[in-house]
Design brief:
single chain, 309 residues, alpha/beta, Nucleotidyltransferase, domain 5, 2 domains, 5-stranded mixed sheet, 21% strand, globular, binds zinc ion
Amino acid sequence: MSDIYALGIDIGGTNFRMGVVGGNGQIYSFTRTPSSVFQQGDARDILLREIKVYLKQSGFEGRIKAMGIGLPAVVSKDKKTVLSSPNLKAFDGVSFTPDFESELGFDVYADRDVNFLLHNDIAKLGLSGEKTVLGFYIGTGFGNAISFGGRLYGGCNGAAGELGHIPIMDSRDECTCGNIGCIETRCSGKALEIIAAEHFAATDIKKIFERHANSPVIRKFIADLAVPIATEINILDPDCCVIGGGVADMSCFPKGLLSDSVRELVRRPYPEQSLNIIFTKHDQQSGVFGAGDYALNEYLSQIGNNKIN
Ligand SMILES: [Zn+2]
């Protein structure tokens, strides 16, 4: 299987990353460019052009079997159409089928970026055998992904796992999704930025946990983060929970306090007694690997093979 390749693409608000993922688990020809390139015209046409140039230059033209593309967006259940993309407006409503796929000559699987991060984490942490794995990714927003029995769960429309957008009672805060009172308005990097500006204006936000982890306002922020996490744990009674994202990756992030706060809120005796929380760390290539490896697995299952790394 080592000579089978898929293309992995990860488009964020700031950067656009591409890489070829091999059946051996390696990433080849990783590139990172500013996402502003998509504002220069039709994002779909620009992406198609970028992929074609990339495949030619990297020597993988004609050798790719499938492609995964992760975006900070809600994507249709068939993984072909971007339904809602408030943080990457250029791709709002973009469909990757049918012309896009026929131009490239391989299948395209689009999904929320956090779904591919969870796919990455399950593969890298060796969790493939776990029955229910939940991913909580605290970045600019509050990302969430759910995997049942090795399959990412998309729900009826592909919109499952929008845990950041559960409403909080009595909150009137406006969320980027257009709704009022979403928990993401308090449990996210955006919320941390507001706290930093209001309470610790003299501290570089990168050092906010280093300097102020024990302050009441930061302890409250961490306790608030535990609320959506414990909520989903109480609903799904998972085998394992993975926590990551830009905020959780920050220096001196109080992981122990977050784990303890989650533990306090979950139902006893179970799932509390079997609670298994793993903190994960991502790098620039994590989203690319998740997207490419997912596409590779889909290709292999379609041709009736099991992947052997
Ligand atoms: Zn919302």
